[in-house]
């Protein structure tokens, strides 16, 4: 691999952790401002309030497990 490809591979490996941290910070900021957030968990969407209360909004299909290299069709 060239140096540029190595650098891109390193950045791609860092992306999941960095994006997870950014979403967690944004979620906490919204809750701290007194607003609620929507969260999916175990095939359900919940509205989560700053006091920790969760209200079921809707049942959805559970997440699709995708293996590396697998192709899926989105309906």
Would you list the SSEs in sequence order as H and E?
A: HEEE
Distance between the termini: 37 Å
What is Rg?
18 Å
Strand order of the largest sheet: 1-2-3
The tally of helices reads 1
The total of beta strands comes to: 3
Shape: flat
Mind summarizing the main beta sheet? 3 strands, antiparallel
Instruction: Provide the structure class.
Output: alpha+beta
This entry's quaternary arrangement is single chain
What's the domain count? Answer: 2
Helix content: 40-55%
How much of the residues is beta strand, in percent?
Answer: 15-25%
Mean residue pLDDT: 91
Contiguous low-pLDDT stretches (5 residues minimum) are none
Q: What does this 3D model show about the protein?
A:
This protein has 75 residues and is α+β, with helices and mostly antiparallel strands. The chain has two domains: 1-33; 36-75, no CATH class. Helix content is 40%, strand content 21%. The chain is built from one helix and three strands. It has a three-stranded antiparallel sheet. The model has no long low-confidence stretch (mean pLDDT 91).
